[in-house]
Amino acid sequence: MQHTLFMDKYPTQHLDLLKAETSFKSVDEIIAFFRSKVEADPRACLIAEFDHYAHTRSLPEGEIAENIRAAKHLVFCFGLKLPNPLAMAPRPRSMGVCELDDRFVIAFLEAPNPAMNETMGEWVKALVKAKPDTPS
Fold it and tell me: What span, in angstroms and rounded, lies between the C-alpha atoms of 76 and 73?
């Protein structure tokens, strides 16, 4: 996982996952995997699946990088606490998945709660195939 400050202000985490490094074959398979993780976590609530690629492509002024083949979001919320109205600003959560020719890029905006970042990071890391043991 890499930490990035997208546009110099949005703290994000992402993983560039070569297709050879995973058994998942499509954005839809990865989104289904994340959906199962959200549905299995009692702290999380599934909200929606959004096809960002289809939406952007449908707009007359829509622009998509040439190397992006598919792009979807899974939207959900870890609403553990609502201490004040400003807690609404960084919610809900979204896992974005893009397919490029040779890889998938999975990205999410960091949550204010470090435990939720850790959970989402574990979900992303689970996409990587287990590596065979190397001889010592």
Answer: 10
Judge whether 21 and 128 are in contact, CB under 8 Å.
yes
pLDDT (tens digit per residue) in 16-40: 999 999 999 999 999 999 999 999 9
The SS3 of residue 19 is helix
**From residue 118, how far is each of 32, 66, 83 by CA, in Å?**
20, 32, 21
Delimit the domains of the chain by residue range. Answer: 2-125
CATH topology of domain 2-125: TATA-Binding Protein (3.30.310)
Q: Are 52 and 96 in contact (CB under 8 A)?
A: yes
CA 99 to CA 24: how far, in whole Å?
11
Amino acid at 23: S
pTM: 0.91
